[in-house]
Amino acid sequence: MDQAAQVGFNPPEAQALAGDALPGAPTFAQVYEAHVRFVWRTLRRLGVPDKDCDDAVQDVFLVVHRRLDEFRPEAPLKHWLFRITSRIARDYRRSGRRKDPAQHGLIPVAGDEHADSQQRSPVDAAERSAAARLIHEMLQQLDDSKREAFILAELEQMTAPEIAQTLDIPLNTVYSRLRRARLDFEAALGQHRERQAREAT
Description:
The protein has 201 residues and is mainly α. The protein has helices at 3-6, 11-17, 28-45, 53-67, 77-99, 122-139, 144-155, 160-167, 171-200.
């Protein structure tokens, strides 16, 4: 199954959209192929329930297709995509909480896909899965603004100036959010370790 089918996109429709881009700009097909996994993992990290990820990815790329002519090649494409993805994620989280207040926050997942996944032993896979669930649990403790900055810095390895450009906020605001996010993350991690210690006694 190709990537378009995996996220609910109609493959013929995706092929039809492939040529709809301005000269010199990336085509829709190029954007999709290069960044669908980034969009998928970002949606999960930003709290979209696993059951909604197919629809959310489709919504992101519908916006991308509609607004691709607004993209300016001098700006990194991933920054533009993150802004769209974060807005879609907020919409899905709000909608999910209205439908079922008990179902909110981040859904634990087995971790992001990696090219060398078939080379790992079952023990390695289990350890990575547990680490991924812990990271998602910790991210759940952060509010939207701190979570976005933390994800871009710690998981996407962006610099502070890149984060400022991506989120369209002042550089000092990035530093402030990251400082508070890291403190909150460490506090949540400390609480997790305390729970583990109590359960072990």
